[in-house]
């Protein structure tokens, strides 16, 4: 526990120092911005410079590398705990994606597990709807950040709690709702785990990357923000006809 808070404190100090050094040019960025947003902003700022200025080019490259280094602080801790074929980097959900997940949870109640909860944004949104949420995250820095934010927002641990645990090694049978935003390469393996552990009354919601062998019950959104809902009663029950997908 002490190590976790030390890591979180060190990151916050590095982040504040970083903002101080780069000045007002990046005031629009926050700690919750994804690496794509940061790099896109950098490209737009530096693309107009001529390539015949080696010092400026080198400085731009160094700045981009520093952003990658900052992002790796979030992405890498905890990776050593997970087999290479199950490693998934941190990438936060967008606002539209979060809203799509909440729509797919309408009419649902009870416990919810967010697998790879990151900075906790899905957990916070679901807890506001009355779910008893648990965020599983192996990155101790992200876990610490989410816990501090929950305390700052006054959210009790009975409503939203964050555990620095590997969900691959956790039995999820006690959860009625599961949300996931992981890489496509692990979805098939995760599907087999959930089929073995979840009850027929459970619902699983996948963000951006669907389960390859499951028929979705409903979907929300389009493109990168699309999410799919799967009712385990349909997933685990052999059927000659796939359930009709409804756009809520």
Automatic annotation (TrEMBL):
GO terms for biological process: methylation; regulation of mitochondrial ATP synthesis coupled proton transport. The chain crosses the membrane at residues 55-76. Belongs to the ANT/ATPSC lysine N-methyltransferase family. This is Si:dkey-190g11.3. Keywords: Membrane, Methyltransferase, S-adenosyl-L-methionine, Transferase, Transmembrane, Transmembrane helix. One of its GO terms (molecular function) is protein-lysine N-methyltransferase activity. GO terms for cellular component: mitochondrion. It comes from Pygocentrus nattereri.
């Amino acid at each position: 526990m002490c190590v976790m808070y030390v890591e979180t404190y060190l990151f916050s100090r590095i982040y504040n120092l970083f903002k101080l050094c780069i000045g007002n040019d990046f005031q629009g960025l926050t700690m919750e911005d994804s690496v794509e947003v940061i790099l896109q902003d950098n490209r737009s700022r530096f693309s107009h410079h001529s390539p015949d200025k080696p010092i400026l080019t080198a400085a731009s490259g160094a700045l981009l590398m520093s952003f990658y280094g900052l992002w790796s602080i979030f992405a890498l801790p905890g990776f050593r705990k997970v087999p290479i074929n199950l490693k998934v980097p941190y990438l936060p959900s967008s606002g539209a994606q979060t809203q799509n997940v909440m729509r797919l949870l309408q009419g649902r109640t009870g416990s919810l597990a967010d697998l790879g909860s990151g900075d906790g944004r899905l957990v916070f949104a679901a807890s506001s709807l009355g779910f008893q949420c648990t965020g599983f995250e192996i990155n101790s820095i992200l876990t610490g950040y989410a816990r501090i934010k929950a305390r700052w927002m006054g959210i009790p641990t009975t409503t939203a709690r964050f555990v620095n645990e590997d969900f691959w090694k956790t039995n999820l049978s006690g959860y009625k709702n599961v949300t996931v935003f992981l890489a496509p390469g692990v979805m098939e393996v995760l599907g087999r785990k959930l089929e073995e552990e979840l009850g027929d009354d459970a619902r699983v919601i996948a963000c951006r990357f669907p389960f390859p062998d499951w028929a979705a019950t409903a979907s929300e959104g389009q493109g990168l923000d699309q999410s799919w809902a799967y009712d385990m009663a349909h997933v685990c029950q052999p059927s000659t006809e796939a359930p009709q997908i409804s756009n809520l």
